[in-house]
Amino acid sequence: MTNWESKVKVKHLLTDREDHRSVQASMNAIADVLEKLPEWYGFRRTLKKFHAIPKGDDVFGPAAYSNKLLDKMYDYANECRIWVE
């Protein structure tokens, strides 16, 4: 069992909508929380991308782009033993 060193609450900031405005607002809110925490210092470069979600097109929309970034967030959290809730 993993010993989590810290935890962060961001899941309540996720949106189930897929339009650019909703996705961008959600990703901004998550980045704003993570940027304030020292354990996320090594993730700062990727957090900048949270503030710049592209509008996308019919093939790859804002929700798909943000999901890729969220996958990276969870990978970083696992590596650093940070519980995300």
Main traits of this protein?
85 residues, 3 helices, mainly alpha, 2 strands, two-stranded parallel ribbon, elongated
* Percentage of β-strand residues: 5-15%
Helix content: 40-55%
Number of domain modules:
1
Q: What is the approximate shape?
A: elongated
How far apart lie the N and C ends? 17 Å
* Strand line-up of the largest beta sheet: 1-2
How many H/I helices? 3
Rg over CA atoms:
13 Å
Q: What low-confidence regions span 5 or more consecutive residues with pLDDT below 50?
A: none
Q: Total number of β-strand segments?
A: 2
Largest sheet: 2 strands, parallel
Order of helices and strands: EHHHE
Structural class: mainly alpha
Average per-residue pLDDT, rounded, comes to 95
What does this structure look like?
By secondary structure, this protein is mainly α. It has one domain. Helices cover 48% and strands 7% of the residues. It is built from three helices and two strands. A two-stranded parallel sheet has the order 1-2. The chain starts with 5 loop residues before the first strand and ends with a strand. The relative contact order is 0.23.
